[in-house]
Design a protein that fits this description.
This protein is α+β, with helices and mostly antiparallel strands. It is built from 3 helices and 5 strands.
Length: 94
């Protein structure tokens, strides 16, 4: 039986690891003991769920106004930080 890693619930995309992998993190996180973690080990057959809502509102990608509704964002070229993030979008997986 596969184990699951829940990043966040609700609107999400999921995938299952086909082999044991080490997933590098774009920025470190802290565990319950305060240690910095730079990568996660994902065992084979683990289901991984990613919350797209969080990706599309990340200030490190979209800027300080990431949570604001600004349709004019889409009328100009996307900022370099968005292009470099290579996050999955509604119309394409870049």
């Amino acid at each position: 039986m596969a184990s699951s890693v829940f990043i966040v619930t609700s609107i999400f995309t999921s995938s299952s690891a086909r082999s044991d992998v080490i997933l590098p993190l774009s920025s470190p996180i802290h565990d319950v003991n305060g240690r910095e973690i730079y990568e996660l080990t994902v065992p084979e057959n683990t289901n991984v769920f990613l919350h797209i809502w969080n990706l599309n509102r990340d200030p490190s990608i979209w800027g300080d106004d990431a949570a604001e509704w600004k349709p004019e964002r889409w009328l100009a070229a996307l900022p370099g930080s968005v292009e470099e993030a290579k996050i999955q979008g509604v119309y394409a997986n870049t």
